[in-house]
TrEMBL record:
InterPro entries: Amidohydrolase (IPR017439), Aminobenzoyl-glu_utiliz_pB (IPR017145), Bact_exopeptidase_dim_dom (IPR036264), Peptidase_M20 (IPR002933), Peptidase_M20/M20A_hydrolases (IPR052030). Transmembrane segments: none annotated. The lineage of its organism: Bacteria, Pseudomonadati, Pseudomonadota, Alphaproteobacteria, Rhodobacterales. GO terms for biological process: folic acid catabolic process. Signal peptide: none annotated. SUPFAM superfamilies: Bacterial exopeptidase dimerisation domain (SSF55031), Zn-dependent exopeptidases (SSF53187). This is Amidohydrolase.
Length: 473
């Protein structure tokens, strides 16, 4: 294997960032409530000698660290938010929460932010030792899981002077992330009716709960008449209370509306709003909605993807050993054949049944389906050429947002995969600093994809980061 000049810097700093990842795993915090995780990232940035800016875009759990001078500005995007209800004992291949109902890192963001910072440190050190002009930024971005932290940061201009953005996401197979993602909006619909005694005077009541239920039924009928690419999900936030002998005077439901592009998503959201208004009309209640978060569809970048692919091919798969493979096999045994097949299909490969961990990287030119989910990295990709990696940190087939992902999140194989991802990102950062033509081609590719209209933020102008509404949910 050939060595990239930046990889020695990655390995030199990896132990500190492994410790950061494990610390964040142990303090899982959800959307806009990542106070301890943010503090840990701030402390490590300062210890590593970065100039730190806190409260980026007015968000208490958003942070930026910067180092270097002159030259292009390279940003590494990190995250550290967890998910509710996924508490799990580490390294145990059976479902056993550490604390029933508590949070857990079921999407690997403890690894995500730490590896992005590791790449930033390695690139910073390489710039310093080689005397190469260039600046490095690490962005600690909150609330990727449904809070659109980066969308608010983009709207506030936090990435306005960035030349190239680089990130990654934990997976079970190493690959350059290709294709787009779904745009989405997260909206609360609040119904207000009139409470009354459900037996003595039901005729005086106007049930907000009835309105909410009718909305949910109406949206279910809408599903037949929306594009195949679209998705609608909902969760009841407030059912109006627990007393069946009271006509519920208030109720709230939270909807996520997704489609291929932001304009298509907003059209579908307008139809969902009409359903809500119809439900209110039928029940003589009132409805108001509040957009909590919204993200665009991801814009891929061919020149940057090709550069990242070259570094992934040069590095090869993570250096997993027999102990790692035995560990992964225990977890893979808890998964279904469909789980394993889905992991392969997500990166465009034919499923295999003989591997618990990858001994390959996905080759260039492999056709992949669009990303089924959504990410606020997408909004960065509209204003800065952006490239991302799928990093191999879990047994093949590990479902996202699962207890199996939480359980493996601080294992030796996860940390090896984290270092591997940082090495690919750091090497790509070196390439874009050394190659002005690559940066120009990346910007030309972005301009061609977004067209003359450019970026339109999917958030309504009045929307603010829903820190109080979503923290802890």
């Amino acid at each position: 294997m050939n060595e990239h000049p930046v990889w020695s810097y990655v390995h030199r700093a990896q132990a500190d960032l492994h410790a950061l990842s494990n610390a964040v795993w142990a303090t899982p915090e959800t959307c806009y409530a990542e106070t301890r995780s943010t503090a840990a990232h701030v402390a490590e940035l300062k210890r590593q000698g970065f100039a730190v800016t806190e409260n980026v875009a007015g968000i208490p759990t958003a942070v930026m660290g910067e180092a270097g001078e002159g030259g292009p500005e390279i940003a590494f995007l990190g995250e550290y938010d967890a998910l509710a209800g996924l508490s799990q004992v580490a390294d145990l291949a059976e479902r056993k929460p550490m604390e029933q109902g508590a949070n857990g890192h079921g999407c690997g963001h403890n690894l995500l932010g730490s590896a992005a910072m590791l790449a930033a440190i390695a690139l910073r050190d390489w710039l310093h030792d080689t005397g190469t002009p260039g600046r490095v930024r690490y962005y600690g971005c909150p609330a990727e899981e449904g809070g659109a932290g980066k969308t608010f940061m983009v709207r506030d201009g936090a990435f306005a002077d960035v030349d190239i953005a680089i990130s990654w996401h934990p997976h079970s197979i190493p690959a350059v992330m290709l294709g787009s993602s779904l745009a989405n909006a997260r909206v609360d619909f609040s119904f207000t009716g009139r409470a009354s005694h459900a037996a003595a005077s039901p005729h005086l009541g106007r049930s907000a709960l009835d309105a909410m239920e009718l909305m949910n039924v109406g949206v279910n009928y809408l599903r037949e008449h929306m594009p195949d690419s679209a998705r609608i999900h909902y969760a009841i936030i407030d059912g109006g209370g627990i007393s069946p002998n009271v006509v519920q005077g208030q109720a709230k439901v939270r909807y996520v509306v997704r489609d291929k592009t932001a304009p298509e998503m907003l059209k579908l959201l307008a139809r969902v709003r009409k359903v809500a208004q119809g439900a209110a009309l039928m029940t003589e209640t009132e409805v108001q909605d509040e957009v909590l978060a919204a993200v665009s569809n991801l814009i891929p970048n061919d020149p940057l993807c090709a550069a990242m692919q070259r570094n992934l091919d040069l590095l090869g798969p993570p250096p997993f050993d027999d102990l790692d493979r035995a560990y992964a096999a225990r977890f893979q045994a808890t998964m279904t054949e469909e789980d394993v097949a889905t992991a392969y299909e997500s990166v465009g490969m034919r499923p295999r049944t003989d591997l618990a961990l990858p001994d390959f990287v996905v080759p260039e030119g492999t056709p992949v389906p669009p990303l089924a989910g959504s990410t606020d990295v997408a909004d960065v990709s509209w204003v800065v050429p952006t490239v991302q990696l799928w990093g191999a940190t879990y047994a093949i087939g590990t479902p996202f947002h699962s207890w199996q992902m939480v359980a493996q999140g601080k294992s030796p194989l996860a940390l090896k995969g984290m270092t591997h991802a940082a090495a690919v990102m750091a090497a790509t950062g070196v390439d874009v600093i050394r190659d002005a033509d690559l940066r120009k081609r990346a910007w030309d590719d972005l301009a061609a994809r977004i067209g003359p209209k450019g970026y339109t933020c999917p958030l309504p102008p009045e929307a603010e980061p829903p820190i109080a509404a979503m923290a802890g949910k």
